[in-house]
Amino acid sequence: MIKDLDNQVATLKELAERRKAAGMVKGALSAPPVNEELSQRKVPHTMAITSGKGGVGKTLITVNLAIQYARQGLKVLLIDADLGLANIDVVLGIEAPQFTIQDVLEDRLTLDQVAIQGPEGITILPAASGVAGLSALTEEQKLSLMDHIDRWNADFDVVLVDTGAGISENVRFFVLAVERIMVIATPDPTSVTDAYALMKVLFLNHRASHFDLVVNQARDEAEAKDVFRTLAQVADKFLNVVLNFVGSVPEDALLAQSVRVQKPVSITHPEAPVSKSFQKIATSLMRLWREKRHEEGRMIFFWRRLLDDTLMHSES
């Protein structure tokens, strides 16, 4: 059980201030000096896709959303944040990466050297697989990663972070470092219970008060909305959080087939109903992003310097 004093937000704030004071992390290979071109970059829309339990299709949803955004002409970054159990490369059917985020954390390579290209021009930051030492990042590793990403001289429109499942320290770190939090649940009662538990931890311990919900493996839209209503009622009564229903993904044999052939269904069957569902979710999310740059009480730690600069100029 997570203790109330274990405040990940406070830790991230401290890390961010240390980074700001230091100007650059010692040995951070990919942290070039701030220049005028870098300061003019747009702030990407960022979202963590997470779940209370595994096996709910989180990675499949993340990958297909990335495909949908790329097809709209947007520059997409996909971060595999399940650092010790990476599988995005498997889902996409691309060759196992030679280098991973681990090489960046250990200051051997830069983000540019680690990043690989996926289908539709998606940029992927791959994680390592079977590396137990990455299951809980140290504070110095978090500080280094924040600095590398914030100063990366790459210009993205959308950044999707595929976290691990559950409420580990790594999951909370990535969830709290970005703009929006998407929770994936299925109609299975254990999935609904675990989704609520995840939101409860993030709200009570870290003051996260806005969540986006996608219901996977729904028989129909009515079943998906029943799951949403159940979660929304309980969350509103006991947590006082805002839960947005952004869409559902139906049960479809094409999804299982796409896993076997290692190609996203949005590529193999772009006109299928399940692919259209990903298109609708992508549209709903973009609307939410554009309506509100960041929710009240939420801080963004990746690309924070760019966001601070954007807000400063908008107020002047």
TrEMBL record:
Keywords assigned by UniProt? ATP-binding, Nucleotide-binding
User: Carries keyword ATP-binding?
Assistant: yes
Segments passing through the bilayer: none
Q: Per the record's keyword annotation, is Nucleotide-binding included, yes or no?
A: yes
> Which InterPro entries does this UniProt record tie to the protein?
FlhG, MinD_FleN, P-loop_NTPase, ParA/MinD_ATPase, YlxH/NBP35
Domain of life of the native organism:
Bacteria
Name of the featured protein: Flagellum site-determining protein YlxH
**What is the source species?**
Candidatus Magnetaquiglobus chichijimensis
